[in-house]
Amino acid sequence: MTPSIDLANIEQAAHSIDSCIRQTPQYVDPSLSRHFGTDILIKIESVNVLRSFKGRGADFFMKSVESNQPVVTASAGNFGQAIAWAGAARGIDVRVFAAENANPRKIDRMRALGARISLEGHDFDAAKDAAREFAERHSGARFVEDGRDPAISEGAGTIGYELAGENLDTLLVPVGNGALVSGVGAWFKAHSPKTRVIGVVAGSAPSMALSWEQGAQVCAPVSTIADGIAIRVPVPAALDWMKETVDLVVKVSESSILRALMLIRDLAGLLLEPAAAVGIAALIENPELRSGRVGTIFTGSNFSTEIAAVLRDSPSVNCN
């Protein structure tokens, strides 16, 4: 039976997680609003110590870990950084498994934050299998799977706690393993039920959208620049939560993700990683979403050297 996300825990996390990762900026951006013809509120999770939202769930989860208990996880980069950071603060040994082709910048950052790194497998889900097997072989190690442990979604749900008073008609949330949209959606369903919570995935990594649509786990190949949401094998617990917390899941193209990155750069003055821009990509592709007060979460800015070059060298986009 899938454990439930506890709203009381989200509220507790909103007051107990490290102050350097909560109460991030949120405001209606005038340039994006003018471009899309409606109020666009942005929540900027890329300006904290980890440059992503993942520290919220990691910090809340690590409160439950014994100081002498090693933690093993898998990550495309941001979650691993967050677990490494939260572990270092508590003197907890952390080992992160990542794919052999993972973003080198994210790998270097995880090491700098104190994690032991193992590169195994051709993608994130293969690395996760290796992490699980490693934890099973090492007695006492605790395997943590982003998207399965409620505490991680509850920590991420503090974004919903901070946003729910903004009177949003629609909230567009990037969907990787589902922890973020599940936690945020749970809070909104209880405290802002009029808000449509819409998950956004890369069309070239559609497993979470297909699974949500069909009501069962559907695995699908991944081929996307948005490595932070490149999920091939959905986590069943997150799918169960999403049935109750998400109103719709939409897929966006690679070209729209790139255009969204450029629009955010040119109109909001922010440099993001591709996964963080998919909410704006959804607005590009779906004019029907551009009504009322629309919010989206800019989930991180740990971009690769290739994306850094694109952000640096691409000319200004036509914003008309």
UniProtKB/TrEMBL annotation:
Single GO BP term: isoleucine biosynthetic process
Top-rank taxon: Bacteria
InterPro entries associated with the record: Ser/Thr_Dehydratase (IPR050147), TrpB-like_PALP (IPR001926), TrpB-like_PALP_sf (IPR036052)
Segments forming domain Tryptophan synthase beta chain-like PALP: 19-300
GO molecular function: L-serine ammonia-lyase activity
Organism expressing this protein natively: Mycolicibacterium brisbanense
Classification lineage: Bacteria, Bacillati, Actinomycetota, Actinomycetes, Mycobacteriales
Reported cofactor(s): pyridoxal 5'-phosphate
Stored SUPFAM superfamilies: Tryptophan synthase beta subunit-like PLP-dependent enzymes
Protein name per UniProt: Tryptophan synthase beta chain-like PALP domain-containing protein
Keywords (A to Z) from UniProt: Lyase, Pyridoxal phosphate
